[in-house]
Amino acid sequence: MSNKPESRIHLRGFGSMTTERKKEIASQGGRAAQESGRCHRWNSKEARAAGKKGGLSMAKKVDKSYWSELGRRGGLARQEKQESGEE
């Protein structure tokens, strides 16, 4: 942080934009990339490989109790959905 008084700090560019405006600009960029054919399109085989890579990476970072808790929460969420008739 600088020692300048806040009245002298002028936000420019993305710093001056609202979160909604930043999202809007990002969305426009994504649509433009897809329309021009410059973006990467995932197929199911690539997506599966990426998910596996991420899972292996996480397995090195957390212990077994993390995965147990994650599964427990997922099971409870599914049970709540079934009981409320959403599924």
Q: Any key phrases for this structure?
A:
87 residues, mainly alpha
Description:
The chain is extended, with a radius of gyration of 22 Å. The protein is mainly α and 87 residues long. The chain contains three helices and no strands. 0% of the residues are buried. The chain has a domain at 1-41.
Give a short overview.
The protein is mainly α and 87 residues long.
Shape: extended
Which radius of gyration do the C-alpha atoms yield? Answer: 22 Å
Taking the sheet with the most strands, its summary is: none
Report the end-to-end length measured between terminal Cα atoms.
50 Å
The level of helicity is 55-70%
In what range is the share of β-strand residues?
A: under 5%
User: Would you count the extended β strands for me?
Assistant: 0
Task: State mean pLDDT (0 to 100 scale).
Answer: 85
What structural category characterises the helix and strand content?
Answer: mainly alpha
What topology emerges from the helices and strands here?
Elements: H1 19-36, H2 44-61, H3 64-84
